[in-house]
Specification:
Strand order of the largest sheet: 4-13-12-11-10-7-6-5
Number of strands: 15
Structural class: alpha/beta
Radius of gyration: 26 Å
Helix content: 25-40%
Length: about 550
């Protein structure tokens, strides 16, 4: 209403300025015409539904689009930098926006990257390239104990909760999933009506707060879980052990965003900051995790159950593998979240220095499952800055079966990375519970953008595989992806990384894995920091409380 009043006020002043044109002087047209033009632009901005920025910031919002149009030219003078000082990949955001808008994204004059730069990656195409297949690839999730397997798409919406995201953002994400036939991970904030209304497939994430299946004292409620898990839209259950945005921390929902609706969905007080515990209270050991997986699978009538983690200690992961073999209870899938990914707000130390990046984490999980003879029955998902077709190809070549994306999907619904997610003042209505800001996000338009982004990214990944002379993603191998390691030398993923043989850890663990394997325990989660220290290391004694004087 305030925005409309401001625009109407401009128009009234503009019309009033026409009176002196007749009574005093034609020079009064100089202020009258610009005011009327601005009023007309403002009225159009508030009425249109394509650009959220213009609906929230009429007239002023055009400055952003002006700068966006000038960015390729300005880039050569004002180079954006990553935190490590390397040039920022400006193409990522542009490519996501163009594909979400279904604009053909082709660039003239070849690559802007230096192919001789260390770290440059490329795939090996074939002279005998093939046409891309017309069918959309998918992967079946469901081990031997799963009675209701699910065929998941190659590219899906990663975990983002209602509460962290607005109702309109959730509606658009799930609407895009419903239209495109891919999955939408709910995040740990519980099942809301906005997840359910559009009809898209859901991966219901169960975090340490057990939102949506929570007792009054914050424990796990089996009856409430069963009621929600047996909804037709819920296709998979994912237990969140940790996440890339803040590994080792629970989720945080600022009190300003805990509305009555969110409080009801999560089972928490209105207006109070919600802090999920860093760990689960439903289990405390790898064996306990396996038994919890079995319990959730039974309560959900045999639906696929797995877990998500940002890999930290390799010993803990191997302890889970030992527990799986000991109990005979295996997850149907494991989602590996990279430390470089994530859309949640967290202390900078956790964002930058805790958890394995996706490449290392994915390699660790894949090798651990292969080395313990479990890989064939457990699917692996990769989540962390997966924004385009080459990302999908590289992750599958590394060992993933499917991928998920959060950041790219947020951009598809309008996110401009203003980094106000935790303040409830998101300018595009994506990460706010302020109804005045959220209303500007027009759901039908953003639903189409989510659909187009997913379809275009998968189409490009499929075309890449065909250009490599392959019939499908299952033929991708580590030897087909190359990385420049010197100005005149490149190595394949097969050469760069260690690859274990099936069952190798059970018989002859390689030296590089032996200590972690021997130290891993199915009876307890152990920290890698507790073993493998140098012979001269000694613990430092710390005191607590005020300093002595």
């Amino acid at each position: 209403m305030v925005r409309w009043l401001a625009v109407i006020g401009l128009g009234v002043v503009g019309v009033a300025s026409l009176v002196p044109v007749v009574l005093v002087s034609p020079w009064w047209l100089l202020p009258a015409v610009p005011l009327l033009v601005l009023a007309a632009i403002g009225g159009y901005d508030l009425g249109q539904r394509r650009h959220t920025i213009l609906r929230n910031y009429p007239i002023l919002g055009h400055l952003r689009f002006l700068l966006e149009a000038l960015r390729p030219e300005l880039q050569q003078y004002f180079i954006e930098r990553n935190t490590d000082g390397t040039p920022f990949d400006r193409d990522t955001r542009t490519t996501v926006y163009e594909r979400a808008k279904n604009i053909k994204d082709v660039d003239p004059f070849g690559t802007e990257r230096d192919p001789t730069a260390i770290g440059y990656e490329f795939v090996q195409h074939s002279i005998a390239a093939r046409p891309a297949p017309e069918t959309t690839p998918c992967v079946r999730i469901g081990g031997p104990d799963c009675r209701r397997p699910y065929d998941i798409a190659l590219y899906n919406v990663s975990a983002m909760s209602f509460g962290a995201l607005s109702a309109n953002a959730i509606l658009a994400l799930n609407g895009g999933a419903a239209r495109g036939g891919f999955a939408h991970d709910t995040g740990e904030g519980g099942l809301s009506r906005y997840h359910l209304r559009p009809g898209g497939d859901l991966i219901w994430e169960i975090g340490t707060g057990y939102f949506g299946c929570r007792t009054a004292d914050g424990g796990f409620d089996p009856e409430l879980f069963a009621r929600n898990a047996n909804r037709a839209q819920v296709k998979c259950i994912s237990i969140k052990l940790s996440q890339g945005a803040k590994p080792g921390l629970g989720g945080v929902m600022p009190g300003a965003k805990v509305t009555a609706e969110i409080a009801e969905i999560r089972g928490v007080p209105v207006g109070q900051t919600v802090v999920s515990p860093p760990g689960h209270n439903a289990f405390h050991t790898p064996i306990g995790l396996c038994r919890f997986i079995a319990e959730l699978r039974e309560l959900s009538d045999g639906k696929p159950v797995g877990f998500k983690l940002c890999v930290g200690s390799r010993s803990e992961l191997l302890g889970i593998c030992k527990a799986i073999r000991q109990t005979g209870i295996a997850p149907d899938f494991i989602i590996v979240d990279g430390a470089e990914g994530g859309t949640g707000a967290a202390p900078i130390e956790f964002e930058d220095h805790v958890g394995m990046p996706l490449t290392q984490g994915l390699m660790t999980v894949h090798n651990a499952l292969v080395g313990t003879g479990l890989r064939e029955q457990i699917r692996i998902g990769a989540s962390g800055k997966i924004t385009n077709g080459i990302d999908i190809v590289k992750r599958i070549a590394q060992g993933a079966d499917f991928t998920l994306a959060a950041r790219a999907m947020m951009m598809a619904v309008g996110c401009i990375q203003a980094q106000r997610c935790h303040t409830n003042t998101c300018p595009t209505g994506v990460t706010t519970q302020d109804p005045r800001r959220a209303r500007a996000l027009y759901v039908p338009d953003k639903t189409a953008r989510v659909f187009h982004l997913q379809r275009n990214v998968v189409d490009n990944a499929t075309q890449l595989v065909a250009s490599m002379g392959l019939d499908g993603f299952d033929q991708l191998r580590p030897s087909m992806v190359m990385r420049t390691v010197h100005a005149n030398r490149a190595q394949s993923y097969a050469e760069l990384y260690e690859w274990l043989s099936p069952g190798e850890l059970l018989t002859h663990p390689p030296e590089s894995w032996r200590s972690d394997w021997e130290y891993a325990s199915a009876e307890s989660f152990v920290l890698a920091a507790e073993h493998g220290d140098g012979p001269g290391w000694r613990p430092v004694t710390h005191t607590h409380g005020p300093l002595a004087t």
